[in-house]
Amino acid sequence: MEGEPEDDVYLKRLYPRQMYEVEKAIHLLKKFQILDFTNPAQGVYLDLTLDMALGKKKKVEPFASVLRLPYPFVSEINKVAVFTGNASEIKIAEENGAAFAGGTNLIQKILDDEIHSDFYVAVPEIMPELNPLRKKLKKRFPKLTRNSIGRDIPKMLELFKTGHEIKVDEERENFLETKIATLNMSSDEIAANLQAVVSEVCRHRPLDLGPFVVRAFLRSSTSEGLLLKIEPLLPKEVETKESHKEAA
């Protein structure tokens, strides 16, 4: 294999695929947009390949989660339904912008497609009564690990009304694709959103098993994917006191 190509025209098979620091990749995407006269507000996407192995033939289940991006890029508010049988909590939910709020009276309406929400959250006490909705809602069924079960209704609504959803492709099972920004945002804003997504993804597998993200590509709506140097973005395992003692 050769070293880095000296100009823009070269045989790809003779050179390893170039890897870019995040800042350089964003700079190139912005440059491509100018050179190609494409939409300056087009989407910026992050494509992640994940190591789903947990050991002992177990795997991380394809997951979905919601996070608050440091720099949101959409103005639409998500519709959130709140499950609670408590009248005062229903009032709190409505005052904080819930699209729907109620108890078991909502179940049949959801099953009949009379009401639909982007996200569903619930207080712990009502969870046993929501089992009829498990198949209907699938990954949107309230779950502790998704922060959609809790007693702080305003906090849950704040997250899910403006939250950004990421999820593993159910067919490919180890691939996650998500829009993280628009190209007309500043480079720092795009980089911050990218880091937030990577950090959220890495919560779904123990750090001591090694890197969860094995490949990452950054691209815009009209560009090719640029391979990122992912290691600087990954969380580092916290050293324990014992490991410090061993090192000493």
From TrEMBL:
GO cellular component: large ribosomal subunit; mitochondrial inner membrane
Protein family per UniProt: Belongs to the universal ribosomal protein uL1 family.
Record PANTHER family: 54S RIBOSOMAL PROTEIN L1, MITOCHONDRIAL (PTHR36427), LARGE RIBOSOMAL SUBUNIT PROTEIN UL1M (PTHR36427:SF3)
SUPFAM superfamilies, alphabetized: Ribosomal protein L1 (SSF56808)
Biological process, per Gene Ontology: translation
Any GO molecular function: structural constituent of ribosome
Localization: Mitochondrion
UniProt-recorded name of the protein: Large ribosomal subunit protein uL1
Superkingdom, taxonomy of origin: Eukaryota
Organism of provenance: Phyllostomus discolor (pale spear-nosed bat)
Keyword terms, alphabetized: Mitochondrion, Ribonucleoprotein, Ribosomal protein, Transit peptide
